[in-house]
Design a protein that fits this description.
Blueprint (H helix, E strand, L loop, with lengths): L10 H13 L6 H14 L3 E5 L2 H11 L7 E4 L6 H8 L3 E4 L22 E5 L10 H11 L2 E5 L7 E2 L2 E2 L5 E5 L12 E5 L2 H10 L4 E3 L2 E2 L10 H32 L5 E2 L12 E5 L7 H10 L27 H7 L2 E4 L7 H20 L4
Parallel strand pairs: 2-3, 2-4, 4-5, 5-8
Antiparallel strand pairs: 1-9, 6-7, 8-9, 10-11, 12-13, 13-14
């Protein structure tokens, strides 16, 4: 089976974990500090604050900016549900804006129409590793005096106009095993603002800056030294991983370019291809589910990110009556194929050849 995702861990990560185990310091310690410093340097920001996962990074970022009861936060309905959940968890209100059909990211041209006197922040998502047009987002935020929190949980190392995402404003990253780099579980908040960093550190540590002295009731969202040890080694490899992902995406695009009814992802300069996501349109001649079954039968893993938009989820029943046509359309068409750096050339050739075979069968059967 060619998996849809596979963490690429080597002897360096194993050695680093064993060193932590031998040290006896397993919870947050010097390894976490080193990981934070290295990540901040990698992004070119002043502060990086390690957390337990990407969801807690987003949660803490909102709290650190003072976003709370009744505030409105503009974001995308086409993302993992955690992006919206954290807005609700701080007592704020998610306000969804439809996505741009060509890149699946929030449509910056539609944001201003969603702004009200209650709007406090914009939370753009760099979906699949493709950067949002941050220049437009920042212009809107500056004009309306809004906070920006970047959901870069799928976009480690992605760039927009040669600047890394997560460095334009407050950034949030996830190190889940399927991401472009991993720490097994973990997250990171990035910022250039001293006060935001100070508040974030307190929030993840029971409201405490000095041990056993607590300024407010808060959470334990700390990262462990075990996770940080893995993250330190993975960060060293991130650019290489991303380059392999880009090359894999380029090869797949080249091999699939002539197939009608399939929309291929854009090969933008700053895209790091957390996912290689195509669209299976009605013109292809087979449904997405049929394509998934054939690929699965042939030993090729797939993913659908995401089959049901957030505003149509049962958990968001008060949003179910809303309509975001582009989001709802692409949710029925998106299909992610393996693109991770563990793939061999034979793997990529197999993935492409099966898609081509399906297409040829469609032609011979007169379906397209």
């Amino acid at each position: 089976m060619i998996p849809i995702a596979k963490p690429l861990l080597g002897e360096e990560e194993k050695k680093a974990v064993l060193e932590v185990l031998d040290s006896g310091i397993l919870a947050q310690g010097e390894k976490v500090k080193l990981f934070e410093n290295n990540f901040a340097n990698y992004l070119g920001v002043k502060h990086a604050i390690a957390t337990s996962n990407g969801t807690t990074a987003l949660h803490v970022a909102l709290l650190a900016h003072g976003i709370g009861l009744g505030d409105e936060v503009i974001t995308s309905p086409f993302t993992f549900i955690a992006t919206a959940n954290v807005i609700k968890l701080v007592g704020a209100v998610p306000v969804f804006v439809d996505v741009d059909e060509k890149n699946f990211n929030i449509d910056s041209e539609k944001i201003e129409a969603a702004i009200t006197p209650k709007t406090k922040a914009i939370l753009p998502v760099h979906l699949y590793g493709q950067p949002v047009e941050m220049d437009k987002i920042m212009q809107i935020a500056d004009k309306h005096k809004l906070i920006i929190i970047e959901d870069a949980c799928q976009a480690h190392g992605a760039t927009f106009q040669n600047k890394k995402v997560g460095s334009f404003a407050t950034g949030c990253f996830s190190f889940y095993p399927t991401k472009n780099m991993t720490s097994s579980e973990g997250g990171m908040i990035t910022t250039n603002k001293d006060k935001i960093a100070e508040m974030a550190r307190k929030i993840i540590n029971h409201g405490s800056e000095i041990k056993y002295y607590h300024d407010f009731v808060s959470y334990n969202f700390r990262m462990t030294d075990l996770a940080a040890a893995i993250g330190i080694e993975q960060l060293k490899k991130l650019d290489g991983f991303n380059e392999k992902r880009k090359n894999n995406a380029l090869l797949l695009n080249q091999k699939l370019a002539s197939i009608k009814g399939i929309i291929l992802p854009q090969l933008n300069e700053g895209h790091v291809f957390h996912q290689y996501t195509i669209r299976i349109t009605p013109q292809f001649g087979k449904t997405r589910d049929e394509v998934v079954k054939i690929l699965t039968d042939k030993g090729i893993g797939t993913g659908i990110f995401y089959p049901l938009p957030i505003h149509k989820q049962k958990a968001y029943s008060d949003y179910n009556q809303l309509s975001f046509p582009i989001t709802e359309k692409v949710a029925t068409e998106v299909l992610s194929l393996p693109v991770h750096p563990s793939l061999t050339e034979d793997d990529l050739n197999k993935i492409a050849s099966v898609i081509i075979e399906i297409n040829n069968n469609n032609i011979s059967e007169g379906k397209i």
